[in-house]
Amino acid sequence: MKKVMVFGTFDLLHKGHVDFFKQAKSLGDYLVVVVARDSNVLRLKGKVADSSEKQRLLAVKSVSFVDKVVLGSSDIGSYKVILDESPAIIALGYDQDVSENVLKKELYALGLNVDVVRLNPFKPDVYKSSKLKNSC
Length: 136
Hints:
single chain, alpha/beta, 5-stranded parallel sheet, Rossmann fold
């Protein structure tokens, strides 16, 4: 079984997120979605998410083809969830500020041989949480 993992806040779950999940799922057999903790959203984005981590977790769980949804670690930079799940692939969103090569090297140093790929955007001029929030 080839396990694929993605990470994100997934606030205001929308078609762009669902497409992101579909692209990731197409890379393997089993999709694990890691939902960011409220504390990390605040630290990384400088603002509170509109929905709590519990609400965001439940929203992602409602996507039928997502196999598993977990909350991320409360420690930024922790690889615990990756070590626990042992994915074959980590799929990054087009707008996630992470270097594929740096992440792959850091994981390899931890003894994990994980492919890291960057996925394509889905109508980013329409389906981006910040744009959707501003249009409400």
